[in-house]
Write a structure and sequence with these properties.
alpha/beta; Rossmann fold; binds adenosine-5'-triphosphate
């Protein structure tokens, strides 16, 4: 089914309740109909409660675009059996309204309340049927739950002011639990430690420098260390700051997550189905094909981005879902819709834990449990339904018609800790928790690296392997490149402008007689400029790209999308291709404009190898730095020495001994030597006039720069070697960083 046509139109089919499988229309019911109409088979109602039972007629609302013509009008719609009523032609919204408001009638009746139709339509999500035999394309697929429990969670910040050391408790003996199949919300005033607690439980914080963290965290009563990457891989975490690929669309982002993390046996159709269900559940259908966007690229709204981040995590049927303020930036309708979806995910078996600010009363009542933090301590912990009574018993009754969420926040903010404590808040942890289960080393280990359950989880096929991961990443990289029009345009224009400038400045200098030293020196200058221009134009994008993509990479890597190797290989492939195009444009321009005499392919190969080594150096520095601005600041420090040691400004022989080794680790040195050997080492220099000392311009330039035409193959090999070393080092740095936290 084409996604591009999605209009989100509700079409209505009505049929008798005696219909064999009221919520499943099967293919055989459409055998005498044109094949396009059989597509209705794929869009049946999945949930009983979505049906509207009117008298003895059952209405099924389906989302389907194939019944809508280009103007959005409902086309002739046939149904399964002869007794099934069929709505024909006309405004689909009108049919929608008629059926909701009037029961499922045939054509006719005027409609005057379009608002109702829209409202109904908005609640009309998730009409697709699972087509995967294992149900992996159902985001609400039942799953084995895991009970998360913690106690004695402490986080201490050590500060030093005017040589006086002090300690601040960010979290103080925090305790709580998130049973499976329940939604638990963490609330509390700003700075009360909500995010800190969530990060600790999700393994995204650990002791370091001034921060000391200790905690007893258990899953199904097995002690776990969530900072271990295997544990974190099993926790779906939606951070406050979205880290999505800016050049992907919500549909692509959700499908990519499903493709990379669900069993490799899932068909493309099942993945599409899952993606569509997720988009519908999250109300993202209307923006499904708009780019996510970012600082430089216009895209979907903040709320839509947030919901996309949620969808990206929920498609994997996680047992533990942590979300940091998932409703921030959402309007009340979308916030409620999201909370209801989370509730259904919990009902499927997950443990849901999220932080939230000022929920509406409707949202508040949708939580099963509440943890109220105040100044790093647990002020309340228990069922949400018990909150009003709990506060009333302690002398803080919730006024009538007042949002209990606002009430508890008001009480927490307006009263001192001492007063609240005296009133009976801040309960001690009185749960009877036995010793943790011991991990049986001989037992089969589950994905968390520990034996969680003796029941043994259902075996499932692994996600895609290295080759598939690389292929998927490669496709995404290509899309990223093509859609990043701003960067692509700038890069192309810069390459052409710089090459033309070099060409004009050094117009045909290499064609002059080298008997004049100045001509040879100018040709050396032209070669050096061609090389350095390519160094900068290839290294700079690599240098800034990684720090920018870092949050996306870290999120994806830490949640098991792919290995560092596939990420690296896919990026490398795209980079090598882009470098090749860029080098070709630049070398063709300069070769003919400057009038070089060396073989064109010598020029191309040397410039290309140097460009690759330079971008590898850029990636290495980019991987090691935290932000694009730091990387750019480092640019001169990394590349200026290359120019200084290239032999143009100071002959290597004159460089002080203690610095001379640097000449040999600079990629530019070898690029320069190859090109000088090509331009000044050929037959052309046989006819050049000699100077009184027996040298000529060619031999002088070769000698001064240390280039020996007999060693050219060595220069190629060293350049290639440097490229490999820089790449491997970057891979190492990346792997090291990725195994840590955000
Ligand atoms: N790594 C850290 N270094 C220094 N202070 C920290 C660190 N992490 C948390 N804090 C401090 O701990 C306190 C709690 O922060 P946290 O972000 O957990 O609060 P919060 O309840 O989530 O706040 P908000 O609702 O405003 O997001 C804050 O005062 C914060 O400045």
């Amino acid at each position: 089914m084409s996604h591009s046509k999605h209009l989100g139109i509700g079409a209505i089919v009505s049929f008798q309740s005696k219909f064999m499988h009221p919520h499943i229309l099967r293919d055989e019911h459409f055998q005498d109909k044109p094949s396009s109409h059989r597509l209705v088979n794929a869009v049946v109602i999945r949930r009983q409660q979505k049906m509207i039972n009117h008298k003895d007629t059952l209405c099924v609302i389906i989302h389907h675009d194939d019944f809508v013509d280009e103007d959005g009008n409902l086309q002739d719609l046939w149904c399964a059996e002869s007794h099934v009523k069929v709505h024909k032609e006309g405004d689909p919204a009108k049919f929608f309204h008629e059926s909701i408001g009037q029961g499922c009638k045939e054509d006719g009746e005027d409609v005057d309340d379009v608002e109702n139709q829209e409202q109904s339509k908005n609640h009309d999500h998730g009409k697709r049927m699972s087509i995967d035999p294992n149900g992996f394309d159902d985001p609400l697929r039942p799953r084995e739950g895991r009970d998360l429990m913690w106690r004695n969670v402490n986080m201490t910040l050590r500060t030093r002011n005017k040589k006086i050391e002090a300690e601040k408790k960010i979290l103080d003996s925090v305790w709580g639990d998130v049973p499976s199949k329940q939604v638990t919300a963490i609330m509390g005033p700003s700075g009360s430690g909500k995010t800190s607690l969530l990060n600790i439980l999700a393994g995204r914080a650990s002791s370091n420098g001034n921060i000391k963290i200790d905690a007893d965290i258990r899953l199904n009563n097995y002690v776990v260390d969530p900072t271990r990457i295997e544990v974190r891989n099993n926790i779906a975490f939606v951070a406050q700051d979205d880290s999505l690929q800016v050049t992907s669309t919500p549909r692509e982002a959700i499908r990519f997550s499903a493709k990379m993390r669900l069993p490799r046996t899932m068909t493309g159709e099942a993945l599409d189905n899952l993606t569509e269900i997720m988009l519908e559940e999250l109300g993202l259908v209307s923006c499904a094909d708009v780019l996510v966007g970012g600082a430089l690229l216009k895209g979907i709204s903040g709320g839509e981005r947030k919901r996309t981040s949620v969808g990206v995590e929920l498609v994997t049927h996680p047992a533990l879902v942590f979300l940091d303020e998932p409703t921030s930036g959402l309007d009340s309708h979308n916030a409620l819709q999201l909370c209801q979806l989370l509730k259904r995910v919990a009902q499927a078996g997950s443990s849901i834990l999220f932080t939230i600010h000022q929920p509406s009363s409707e949202i508040f009542s949708s939580f099963d449990r509440l943890i109220l933090l105040n100044q790093g301590r647990v002020m309340y912990q228990g069922l949400t339904a018990d909150v009003p009574a709990h506060f009333e018993e302690r002398g803080f009754p919730c006024p009538q018609h007042y949002n209990p969420a606002d009430h508890v926040m008001h009480i927490a903010l307006e009263n001192s800790i001492v007063k609240l404590q005296n009133s009976g808040f801040f309960p001690n942890d009185t749960r009877k928790i036995g010793d943790p289960f011991k991990v049986d080393e001989d037992a089969n280990r589950d994905p968390l690296g520990i034996t969680i359950s003796s029941r043994g989880e259902e075996k499932q096929d692994p996600p895609p392997g290295l080759v598939d991961q690389t292929y998927e990443l490669f496709k995404r990289e290509i899309k990223n490149l093509v859609r990043n029009t701003h960067t692509l345009r700038t890069r192309t224009v810069m390459t052409v402008v710089i090459s033309l400038t070099i060409g004009c400045l050094f117009w045909q200098v290499a064609d002059n007689d080298f008997s004049e030293f100045i001509n040879a020196q100018s040709t050396f200058g032209a070669l050096l400029m061609s090389l350095t221009a390519n160094i900068f134009s290839t290294a700079l994008p690599s240098l800034v790209a990684f720090p920018e993509e870092r949050p996306v990479f870290l999120r994806e890597y830490s949640t098991n999308y792919y290995s560092v190797v596939s990420y690296f290989v896919s990026r490398l492939t795209v980079e090598l291709t882009v470098n090749a195009v860029q080098v070709t444009v630049s070398t063709i321009t300069t070769y003919f404009m400057v009038g070089f005499h060396l073989d064109y392919w010598v020029l191309w190969t040397a410039v290309y190898l140097l460009a690759c080594a330079s971008s590898a150096l850029g990636v290495m520095v980019g991987s090691a730095t935290e932000s694009a601005s730091t990387a750019i600041e480092l640019l001169p420090a990394v590349f200026m020495p290359q120019i200084l040691f290239s032999g143009f400004f100071v002959p290597p022989a004159l460089i002080p001994n203690w610095l001379s080794w640097l000449v040999y680790i600079m990629p530019l040195t070898y690029g320069v030597r190859i090109l000088l050997a090509g331009e000044f080492g050929g037959d052309r220099c046989d006819n050049v006039e000699t100077f009184p000392d027996g040298t000529n311009s060619c031999t002088r330039i070769l000698g001064n720069s240390g280039s020996n035409p007999d060693d050219v193959w060595w220069y190629y090999l060293v350049l290639l070697g440097l490229f490999i070393v820089f790449r491997l080092f970057a891979l190492f740095v990346l792997k090291k960083k990725a195994s840590k936290f955000y």
